[in-house]
Predict the structure.
Amino acid sequence: MKDSTATRRPDAFESPIVIPNDAYNISFRFSAPFIRDKANIRYAYLLEERMDNWSQWQVKPEVSFSFLKSGDYTLKVKAKSLSGEYALPAQISFTVEPVWYATMPWVIFWSALAFALAFSIFKRIQKIILKEKEKTRQEEKELQKAREIERENQIIMHEKERIEAENIEKSKDLANNAMLIAKKRELLIDIQSKLNNIRKNAKNDIVRKNILDIVRNIQISLNDEKQYQLFDINLERVHQELFDELKKRYPSITIKELRMCAFIKMELTNKEMASIFNISVRGVETARYRLKKKYPNIHELIGQP
């Protein structure tokens, strides 16, 4: 930093003096040429931008100011002698230059930089806001889509429950039908057995022949596959999903095995299945054992074989 000294007389300063910002000490010298008593002159000064009141009278014809901030200043000086002479107050204006980065070009540069930075931040924030809005819109769309999927799933589930309820009802009807078939077969077999006994004890050939005809008709009825075919068709309609899954897992599964699986699913007893299949209860037990051995994981679909 520099030491700057003003050497012109105070009353001669008509235009401002520009002092560099790095001048750490600024000195001003005074003189009062119009006072005759040169040996007893006193001076007082006032730096308006820094002092509120005039200084004390002093003999020393100079003043120094250290580390003045940048800006415009006005220094006023007045003089008097001990004999009572006064000189008119004089003043000087001077300017301490601002630091380089506070000069007008740099102020413009910093302002432009600040504006560019603010604009960049604004655009960045605007971009973030737009991105968040787009994200919110996407989330709303996904949420709406999820709700629609949920509604569709609920409709599908309700439809599935309705179909399952219908299948349960149909399964009950089939079970009742199977029971009726079983009871009908048992009744026919019982009647056939009793007629055979009557035929054996009958003495009239015509009576025996007529009874034999009846027994044969009963046997034909017992061997009639039409009712079983119709039963199998209805059974497959009701348990379509079960049959499809069984055929998919076990392509070699037979119609009788499918029927057995459906009866197990319907929780029919071995006796009821024996009557429907026209085999013994022991035969049903053997068929179930073979089913379990042939298809180890079939219980996942029909329960315990």
The chain has two domains: 2-98, 171-302.
